[in-house]
What does this fold into?
Amino acid sequence: MLSSLSRFPNAVSPCLFTRAKMSSESLPPLPERRIVLGCGAVSVDFLATVASYPNPDDKIRSTSLKVQGGGNTGNALTCAARLGLNPRIISKVANDAQGKSILEELEADGVNTSFLIVSEEGNSPFTYVIVDNQTKTRTCIHTPGYPPLIPEELSQSSLSSALNGANMVYFDGRLHDTALVVAKEAARKNIPILIDAERKREGLDDLLNFASYVICSEKFPQAWTEAPSVPSALLSMLLRLPNLKFVIVTLGEDGCIMLERSVNGGSNAGEMDVHCLLESLKHKKDESKTIPMCISSVVTKLSANGIGTVMGRLFIGTAEKIPPSELVDTTGAGDAFIGAVLYALCAGMPPEKMLPFAAQVAASGCRALGARTGLPHRTDPRLVTFL
It folds into this structure.
């Protein structure tokens, strides 16, 4: 049964949410096709900052507390909405206080929740997040929603409506049975698919076979491919996933690495070891720059010993060097990066523009407590030069 705002009398109507006023003189036009569909996790985050993470059996006090919406897909789509896209979400909550709060926040930011399932029983997902002020790290303790979303709860007509006009479909790797049904239908309609590969999960391998784009956490590429290094693992992913156009691994304050498959050109390119090419790109980084930058290679036949060769381009994206006094919380930084990549793909940005833009959006979110508090709107002055 699909959710309805009438069931939640306190929910915010889509027509009531507000966006920052856009200046047409300083900003490029919005992408013509800007509908994106996300399928995955939503939750309520209970964020407590502490002076330092407690030892076992300690009793400490928080220095601040914030309660707000969370979940990888909820965060990424909120980011995409603030940047100007029209996101839709497939997920599930219960008809409880947390579920109402989740819906209200998503709708207030312009995320279409028409395809989100509401269960009359059970509990909505929630997460305790402990933010360590000393190390600037966060620890998450998640309680999943119950009962879980099953494919039978998403009718064929609802799925068709959710995909109608979509320019991109995004999965965070959760709700794998339903996600696979959505991915198969999206692939049948030739809609590009972006997958967040945070860690190895049940059903993720099947989902990755449909991926057009993959964004990974730092540890995932080697864990999934068993390759000896990150560069060789990225190359292995392109070889194992023939539909994959690019793969990005995010590295926190060290930025990201992207490997893009090249289907045209480069026939006369010489072969080069992917590790050597990566090192040569690293030498081109300007460490004096504080804003995000991108360093790219030409189309090259990339190789890794014992793995194979791929024709492609390698990119290094740097992160913004955030002053320690401005760094508050890294919760949701990866989700913000993904939300920005969704926008960049819809806008047709080349990688040289996409990676700095996504890094800048992610850095903006790190300046406030919680995954969504600091997410910028499209009109944020910090984004103007990156759009």
Notes: The mean pLDDT is 92. The chain has ten helices and 17 strands.
